């Protein structure tokens, strides 16, 4: 597995008890830091050490607008010998894992000195019994041309770039002059579906999954007559319901499976004022919880992702006149990698791409609530989001 953001995808797979190996290129002080962090997390990884320094990307997130600015360090060129070493290690992993290898995930971009030929070589070596998952954009035609890619997962903007790379956009009129509006423009939706189907048929890709931030996501399956859309639920509404079931939702917690949403000082003050106004009602909810009358179900059994969490407490108290004034501070960094990791581990278990993609989207959505880390999420919130994702089937004309 090659990855541009080391640790996030393997971490999510490891959490549900699937053995995973991360193959990566590392160099310099940053590489040493990454290696140490992966060891601390218990993630099995193989490093191809290079002379070039591993670059970093610093992302500045504007809390008021949600916009991001990325400051990406320049990358040095790896040598031909280092590239060959990476390819040899990949081949060795595939050869020794024959019969046990279930999924190969190729994610991210290449360092200077490496191109899509390396990923194409890995794809060619994939056993027929293994599943090849691709999350990449730049120069991927050679990888797709191997006809070994079982699934590609990208966002809408990346899909447009790929379609342009492959020369499909020439028959699409003005569709690619800008990122299409897939929420309200029905003609764009139809054309979008036709292009996704063409991508699958041309390169024998089994599944094409496309995300679009907080908006609808899409999943296309080759050979099918239609496709599925996934409407992401309103996080504020989910947290309001969860809060009334567990009034300690925003109390700081320190476990990887249970992280509270991040709130601003201004929001904390509003919540304190609201709690003071509704103190009697909230105490009644706490007493009901102590008596076992409702509340959020316990954490899912470790390693199991098929147990939905349901809210069995009354969502409103007769004396609570207003909903909790929840305001969210969101961090979308690492959401795509979280989708990858959770999709993979759920697909390994269920072999159901629709359910697996919905679970990945739910985890990614929940991870946006944690600003101190990337790729971490509260498991209860993930399951609450999963239960509220609206999955719709559509038929291609």
From TrEMBL:
All copies of domain Carbohydrate kinase PfkB, residue ranges? 19-229
Q: According to the UniProt entry, where is the signal peptide? A: none
Q: Which InterPro entries match?
A: PfkB_dom, Ribokinase-like
Its name, as the record gives it, is Carbohydrate kinase PfkB domain-containing protein
Name the source organism: Tieghemiomyces parasiticus
């Amino acid at each position: 597995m090659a990855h541009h953001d080391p640790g996030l995808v393997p971490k999510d797979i490891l959490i549900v008890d699937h053995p995973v190996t991360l193959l990566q290129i590392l160099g310099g002080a940053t590489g040493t830091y990454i290696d140490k962090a992966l060891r601390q997390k218990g993630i099995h990884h193989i490093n191809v050490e290079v002379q070039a320094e591993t670059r970093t990307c610093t992302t500045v997130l504007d809390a008021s607008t949600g916009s991001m600015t990325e400051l990406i360090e320049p990358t040095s060129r790896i040598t031909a010998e280092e590239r060959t070493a990476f390819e040899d290690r990949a081949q060795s992993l595939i050869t020794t894992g024959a019969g046990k290898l279930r999924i190969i995930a190729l994610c991210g971009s290449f360092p200077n000195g490496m191109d899509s030929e390396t990923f194409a070589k890995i794809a060619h070596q994939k056993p027929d019994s293994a599943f090849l998952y691709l999350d990449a954009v730049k120069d991927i035609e050679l990888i797709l041309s191997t006809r070994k890619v079982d699934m590609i997962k990208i966002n809408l903007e990346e899909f447009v770039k790929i379609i342009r790379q492959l020369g499909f956009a020439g028959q699409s009129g003005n569709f690619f002059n800008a990122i299409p509006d897939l929420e309200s423009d029905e003609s764009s939706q139809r054309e979008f579906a036709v292009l996704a189907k063409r991508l699958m048929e041309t390169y024998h890709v089994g599944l094409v999954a496309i995300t679009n931030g907080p908006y609808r996501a899409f999943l296309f399956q080759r050979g099918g007559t239609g496709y599925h859309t996934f409407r992401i639920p309103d996080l504020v509404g989910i947290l309001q319901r969860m809060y009334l079931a567990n009034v300690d939702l925003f109390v700081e917690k320190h476990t990887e499976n249970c992280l509270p949403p991040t709130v601003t000082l201004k929001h904390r003050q509003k919540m304190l004022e609201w709690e003071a106004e509704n103190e009697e009602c909230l105490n009644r909810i706490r007493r009901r919880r102590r008596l076992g009358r409702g509340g959020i179900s316990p954490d899912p059994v470790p390693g199991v992702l098929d147990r939905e969490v349901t809210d069995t407490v009354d969502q409103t108290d007769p004396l609570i006149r207003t909903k909790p004034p929840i305001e969210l501070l969101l961090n979308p960094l690492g959401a795509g990698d979280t989708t990858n990791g959770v999709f993979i581990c759920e697909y390994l278990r269920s072999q159901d791409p629709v359910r697996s993609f919905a679970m990945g989207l739910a985890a990614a959505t929940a991870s946006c609530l944690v600003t101190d880390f990337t790729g971490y999420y509260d498991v209860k919130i993930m399951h609450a989001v999963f239960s509220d994702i609206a999955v719709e089937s559509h038929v291609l004309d």
